[in-house]
Automatic annotation (TrEMBL):
The gene is flgK. Its main location: other. Belongs to the flagella basal body rod proteins family. GO terms for molecular function: structural molecule activity. Residues 346-365 are annotated as: Disordered. Keywords: Bacterial flagellum, Cell projection, Cilium, Flagellum, Secreted. GO terms for cellular component: bacterial-type flagellum hook; extracellular region. Pfam families: Flg_bbr_C, FlgK_D1. Residues 483-522 form the Flagellar basal-body/hook protein C-terminal domain. It comes from the Bacteria. This is Flagellar hook-associated protein 1. Residues 107-337 form the Flagellar hook-associated protein FlgK helical domain.
Length: 525
C-alpha cells in the first residue's frame, strides 16, 4: 500500500466519522420529539476492483419494528377513541347523579331520575295523610317541577354534547386532512430522492411522526412500496388518498399539505330530529363525510378521536335522547291514566305515541318540552280534589290511584289496560325508527327510571374502563417500541466516545503520512 492510498483511506474514515456524528447528533436533538424513531448510520467498505479504498457512508437506517409499530398505531386509536367517549359522557354522569338503590339512604339524595321520581311519590304519600294542607300540595308541585327540570337538563346535555361531537368532527376532519396530505407530500419527496440514490431517513422519520399523529385521529393501517410511496387505509381496508394522483388526478390538482382535502364535513346545527341515516330517503347530507366530493364515507371511518365523535353524534346520544323521550311519554301517560294529568308535553296531557314524529306530533324531542300541567300549577289544591274532573276538596282517591297505579309494578299497571297502553315505547324509536330502548318498557315507573339511568351510566362506565385498559396496553407497547426505536442518550454518548477515538486514530494516520511525505521530499531534494 502506497502513501497516497493510506491518505485516501484515512480521509474516507474521517468523512465517515463526520457522517456518523451527524446521525448521533440528530438522534440526541430529537430524543424528546413524539414519534421520532432513532436512526443508525451505515458505513460500508469501499473496494473498487478488489482494492482497499477505505469506507463510504451508506443509507441511514430507521430502527423500526414494523409489526410492533403497527400494533402501537392500532392501540393509539383505541386510547384516543375511549378517551373522547369518556370525556364526553362524563357530562351525562354528572347530571344523572347517583344510581345507588340502598334504601337506608335518604330519598332524594341526588338529582337522578329515580330519586326525583321517588320524591314525587314521597310527597304524594304525605299529601294523602294531610290532603288539605297547602304546604303538602306545594311539596308535590315542587317535586314535579324538579323532575321536569332534571329531565330538561339531561335532554339539553344530550343536545349540547351531540353538537360538540359534530363540531369536533369538522375539526377532526381538518386535522386528518393535514396529516394525510403531509404524508403525501413527504412521500413524493422520498420517492424522488430514492430514485436518485439520496438518503431519505430524515424525511421518513417526519412521515412516521405524521403517521403517529394520524393513528390517534383514526384507526388506520399503512403500507409502504419499494419506491418509498405510502398507502393509507382505514380499518376496513378503504384507501384514503394522500395525494391527488392516487385518485387518478394530476398531482398539482391540490396544493399539499392542506386541511380541506380529501375529506370534507359540514358545519351544521343539530336538533333532536337531526339523524344520520344510510337510507337516502331519510339521509341528512349535512351529516355526511365526503371523500373528494364523491360521496359519503362516514361508515368506513372508525376508531380514534374522529370515530368516537361519529359514534357519539350518530349512535350514543340519539339513543339516550330516545330513551328519555320514551320515559317522558310514559310519565305523562301513566299519571294521566291514573286520573291526575300532572304532566304534559307542553300542550296536552295525551301526547301522540308516534315514535318517529317530532313533538307535539310524536315522541322525538318530547323530553325537552315536558312540563307540569298549568292547571295544577295555578291551583295545587286540584291534587286533593279527586282527580282531573272532580272538585271535591280533600278527596284522596286520585292520589291513592296514582300511588297504586302510576307507581305500581303489576302487569296491569305496566302493560295494557282498557284505557291506554302503559308500557314505555321500546322499539322503532328516533326520527328514522332505528333505535330500541335497550331494556324492558313493561316495568314500574321507578324501575323504568332506574333502568334508563343505569343503562346510560353503564355506557359511560364502559368508556371510562375502556380508556383505563387501553392506556395500560398502550404504555406496554410504547415501552416495547421505545426499546427498539427510542433514543437512548447514554448509548448515543458511548457512540460519540468511540467515534472520537476513531477520529483520533484516522487523524494520526494522516499526520504520519504527512510526516513521511515530508521526509521523502527532503530526501529527494
Amino acid at each position: 500500500m502506497d502513501l497516497s492510498s493510506s491518505l485516501s483511506i484515512a480521509t474516507s474514515g474521517l468523512h465517515a466519522i463526520d457522517y456518523q456524528l451527524s446521525v448521533v447528533s440528530q438522534n440526541v436533538a430529537n430524543q424528546s420529539v413524539s414519534g421520532y424513531v432513532s436512526e443508525s448510520a451505515t458505513v460500508v467498505s469501499r473496494t473498487p476492483g478488489g482494492l482497499r479504498a477505505g469506507v463510504v457512508a451508506g443509507s441511514t437506517v430507521l430502527n423500526v419494528n414494523k409489526a410492533l409499530q403497527a400494533s402501537l398505531y392500532n392501540q393509539n386509536a383505541k386510547v384516543a377513541e375511549s378517551d373522547a367517549l369518556s370525556n364526553s359522557l362524563s357530562a351525562i354522569t354528572s347530571i344523572q347523579g347517583s344510581t345507588d338503590t340502598d334504601t337506608s339512604k335518604s330519598t332524594g339524595s341526588s338529582n337522578s331520575l329515580p330519586d326525583s321520581l321517588g320524591n314525587i311519590q314521597s310527597t304524594l304519600i304525605s299529601l294523602a295523610a294531610t290532603p288539605l294542607e297547602s304546604s303538602a300540595q306545594a311539596a308535590v308541585m315542587s317535586a314535579a317541577k324538579t323532575l321536569t327540570s332534571n329531565i330538561h337538563a339531561l335532554s339539553d346535555t344530550y343536545t349540547m354534547q351531540r353538537q360538540t361531537a359534530q363540531d369536533n368532527i369538522v375539526s377532526n376532519i381538518a386535522t386528518l386532512n393535514t396529516q394525510l396530505t403531509q404524508i403525501g407530500s413527504l412521500s413524493t419527496q422520498i420517492m424522488s430522492l430514492k430514485a436518485s440514490g439520496t438518503d431519505t431517513a430524515d424525511l421518513e422519520n417526519q412521515r412516521l411522526q405524521a403517521m403517529n399523529g394520524l393513528s390517534s385521529n383514526l384507526s388506520v393501517t399503512f403500507s409502504e412500496s419499494s419506491n418509498g410511496d405510502m398507502v393509507v387505509r382505514t380499518e376496513d381496508g378503504t384507501e384514503l388518498p394522500t395525494r391527488p394522483d392516487q385518485m387518478g388526478k394530476p398531482y398539482n390538482a391540490v396544493k399539499l399539505p392542506t386541511s380541506t382535502w380529501p375529506l370534507s364535513a359540514t358545519n351544521t346545527t343539530l336538533s333532536a330530529s337531526t339523524v344520520y341515516s344510510s337510507d337516502t330517503s331519510t339521509a341528512n347530507p349535512d351529516l355526511f363525510i365526503s371523500l373528494d366530493g364523491t360521496g359519503d364515507i362516514k361508515s368506513h371511518l372508525t376508531g380514534g378521536t374522529l370515530g368516537a365523535n361519529i359514534t357519539l353524534r350518530d349512535t350514543t346520544y340519539p339513543k339516550m335522547q330516545a330513551q328519555l323521550d320514551s320515559f317522558s311519554y310514559t310519565l305523562i301517560n301513566r299519571f294521566s291514566n291514573a286520573g291526575v294529568s300532572l304532566f304534559t308535553n307542553g300542550s296536552t296531557s295525551t301526547p301522540s305515541s308516534n315514535p318517529t314524529g317530532t313533538n307535539p306530533n310524536g315522541l322525538v324531542g318530547l323530553s325537552s318540552a315536558l312540563s307540569v300541567n298549568s292547571e295544577y300549577t295555578a291551583d295545587p289544591s286540584k291534587l286533593s280534589s279527586g282527580g282531573d274532573t272532580s272538585t271535591t276538596k280533600g278527596d284522596i282517591s286520585a292520589i291513592t290511584n296514582v300511588l297504586d297505579k302510576t307507581f305500581g309494578t303489576s302487569s296491569a299497571d305496566t302493560t295494557d289496560s282498557a284505557k291506554a297502553s302503559l308500557a314505555a315505547p321500546s322499539s322503532g324509536l328516533g326520527p328514522d325508527g332505528s333505535i330500541s330502548l335497550g331494556f324492558s318498557g313493561s316495568q314500574g315507573i321507578l324501575a323504568l327510571a332506574t333502568s334508563l339511568t343505569s343503562d346510560q351510566a353503564s355506557v359511560a362506565s364502559e368508556a371510562s374502563n375502556g380508556f383505563t385498559y387501553a392506556s395500560s396496553v398502550q404504555t406496554t407497547l410504547q415501552t416495547a417500541v421505545s426499546s427498539v426505536s427510542g433514543v437512548n442518550v447514554n448509548n448515543e454518548m458511548a457512540k460519540v466516545v468511540a467515534l472520537q477515538n476513531a477520529y483520533t486514530a484516522n487523524a494520526k494516520v494522516i499526520s504520519t503520512v504527512q510526516t513521511m511525505f515530508s521526509a521523502l521530499l527532503n530526501a529527494i531534494n
